Structure formats: structure tokens, C-alpha cells
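Minutes, project huddle
Topic: does the predicted pose make sense with zinc ion bound?
PN asked that the exact inputs be recorded in the minutes so nobody has to dig through chat later. Recorded below.
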Amino acid sequence: MYDHRKLGRELGLFDTDPLIGSGLPYWLPDGAIVRHSLEEYIRTVERRAGYRHVYSPVLGKRELYEISGHWSHYSDDMYPPMDLGGEQVVLRPSLCPHHAVIYRSRSHSYRELPLRLAELGGMYRSELSGVLGGLTRVRCIQLNDAHIFCTLDQVADEAAAALELIATAYRAMGISATRYRLSLPGPGGKYVAAPEKWQRATKLLIEALDCSGLPYESAEGEAAFYGPKIDVQVTDHAGRESTLSTVQIDFHQPEQFDLHYIGADGDKHRPVMVHRSIIGSVERAMAQLIEQHGGAFPAWLAPIQVIVLPVSEAEDGVAAELAEHCRTAGLRAEVSAAAGGSLGARIRENRLVPYQFVVGPAEAAHGDVSVRLRDGRRLPAQPAAQIVRRVGELVESHAGRLWAD
Ligand SMILES: [Zn+2]
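Predicted holo structure (C-alpha cells), as shared on screen:
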């Protein structure tokens, strides 16, 4: 594996500046393309799975976090409040309280459940500067988050479906989980009290894990303050393990925010909140992608998907038209013009680009393209329109492989 901080700078993906501050990385154009593709993929997968997206502000009144329990259980990780005309506002440490309030803003019938609210939203953590590094420990986080409001007997299925979504996303991203961890409370931690709810939530998570057939280990002292969780652990280039994805069951916040739905009996009932994140923070997911692939991203994430290489200047014009054809077909394509050096040198320069389209005199004359794949494989010359369509399909399928024979 590679060090994502080193590669991030070398490949022009992201960087930091002391004037902006530590733990506050910014994204360069190529990094922004990868990140944007990842975020769009997640939104698409979530929409297909029945999630509905919302936006909520990164600030909230102190009172919001007092109700959620963050103020008393999580304040060490929060920024100090800002005074605004007698009111205190806080940079949010999580999206959950906002989503609970959004749920509460409308009345809900049992027929609407499970109601799945999702958001790729900003949140903030007041990490000390000593522990900050690259994208894995940051102060400003873009979280792939969702909250499923459901009945008690829907919880296990929803948690299992979330685990399935996580597995699907990992396959598309070409990253692997180190292990699944059932994170339980430990001695001395700050947790909301209600032992019977903790036991019930733990039982449901075990049910979801069993139904998914995934091997897992239990760990004490790793739970959220409001409930137990399933953590999907990944390992970085230095062998350090961290949590990327998570599924949590929460009886606490529905109580705190007095959430309810109208049941088939016409009475008010309390929903359960399942918190889940498919790829965790976008920053950490990007770090994992960079380290695992060394910059040779799966084609759907690559900043440039197709590089068109004219053999000589005589093919520069045809190459430019071909790149335009690719862009019209939705692919990210560029030309590496003949003036840029020998064909071999230009191929080396573009070695991370998954599809390299070579156009020589014979190809130009017949409207063909010879394709080199990033892994060194060469495909025979084929009509340009056919190859562009095929590459478009492969990218769109989010398959890990570059070519299907
Ligand atoms: Zn949450």
C-alpha cells in the first residue's frame, strides 16, 4: 500500500496549507473529480435503495445538542460555541440531531416506514493538531450519513440491507474490509443509561450480522454514547486500523426528540433510529482509495478515463475529434498530442489512465482505435464508435475490471 499524503501531493489530488490550518485539506481539480464521482455514486446507490436525500445546516443551536446528548457526552470533540446576540450556536459534531428534527417536522404514518433520510453533509471535530494527518484525521469532515426511522421489527432487515450496501460499495471501489466489529460499551465510558435498550439494540445488530453471514468480533468500549454499533474496519499503509463504515441502532435520540409515528391502531408509537454510513467520511474513504490503488483508481473514479494518443502530428486532428466524441459520451477524455514526446514517453506519462486510445495512420484512415489498457494489455484495432460505447458501459457498470473478454 501507498502513503496517501505523499501520493495526494504527487498526483495533484489534495493538499494543505498552514494558512488555512492543519486538519483542513483542500481539493485540487483532479482530486475533486474523484471525490465528486464517489459522492455521485453513493447518492445513486442510495436513491436506488430507497433513501431520500436532504440538506441540513452545519450549524445548530447549543440546545439542539443538549437534547441529543452530544453536549454532555461528546463535548470534548466539539468546537466551543459561538455567541450570537444572546444565542449560542455550535459547529455540528454529527448530522443525527438535524435529521431527527427533519423527521419530527412532519407527521408520519406507519405506512411511510422505514423512512430513510440521507445526506452527504459537513460536520466538525475539534481534533488536537498533534493527531492530524492527511485525510484520515481532519477537523472538517464530509460524512456520508443516513438515518432510517423504522419500527422495531424492521430494524434487523434495515441493518442487514445497510451491510449489503457497504459490501456493494467496497466491491465497486476495490477496497477491502479488514474486519467487522460489534462495538459495545465498556467500563468508564460516557454512555446514556438504559441497559435494557442497549441489550435489545445489541441483540438486533447480532441478528443483522448473523443474517448477513459475516464473521465479526466484539469489542468493548467502542460503542457510540447512544448505542452499540457495527463498525467496518479498514487498514492503512502503516498497518493502522480505523473505522470506515458503520451501522448503529439508537433508541435514545427518538426518545430525546420525542419522535413518533401513527400506527395501524391510530395511536402514537416511538420509531427506532438506525444510523448508517456506507463509506464513512469522504476524506477517509478517499485516503483508503488512494492507498489501496496507488492512484490507479477504478475507471469510474479515474480523473482521466481515456487518454487519446496520436502516433504523429498527422493524427492530432483525428485524436481531438475522438476525445470530443468520448466527452459527448460522458467519458473524461484528454489528448496527449504528438508534440509532447515519443509515443512510449506519453504512454508512461499517462500510465494511471485506465484506457489509452492509440491512433496511427492506419487507424485514422479507417476510423479505428487501438486500445492499450493500463495493465499493459493491448486490444486489436476496432471501430472508434464501438470502443467508446464499450468503455462507456464498463465505466457505467462500476465494475472493478478494465475489460470483459
Ligand atoms: Zn447519526
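Observations noted during the meeting:
- The radius of gyration is 24 Å.
- The pocket of zinc ion is lined by residues 94-96, 145, 147, 275 (CB under 6 Å).
No decisions taken; revisit at the next huddle.
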